[in-house]
Design goal:
mainly alpha; 2 domains; two-stranded parallel sheet; 4 helices
């Protein structure tokens, strides 16, 4: 097996990369927040309720292990709403209509 001729990154370059990633994440958060708070987007915000949890528990854990994906799917099922997602794991459950 050939070894890489590139030296490992210095601690400074690793830290710079982490800072850049943090800045991008903050920008995405701000975009999402602006979209959610914009009244012209017609988003319906729903709390996690007992009904959501019923749907959460109905999706077999072996089909969808990620708890955040399970909440997304459970909310769509509760609201009888299609999901706009490219997430293959959610789509593979076949539990909700997927639009993408």
């Amino acid at each position: 097996m050939a070894s890489s001729s590139r030296p490992p990154p210095s601690p400074i370059s690793v830290r710079e990369s982490e800072d850049q990633l943090g800045s991008r994440r903050a920008g995405v958060y701000e975009q999402i927040q602006a979209t959610v708070l914009d009244p012209t987007t017609n988003l319906l915000l729903q709390p996690v309720s007992a009904a959501t949890m019923t749907h959460f528990g109905a999706v077999p854990l072996e089909d969808l292990r990620d708890p955040f994906d399970r909440f997304i799917l459970a909310t769509a099922l509760q609201l009888k709403a299609p999901l706009v997602t490219a997430d293959r794991a959610i789509a593979a459950t076949g539990a909700a209509e997927i639009v993408w």
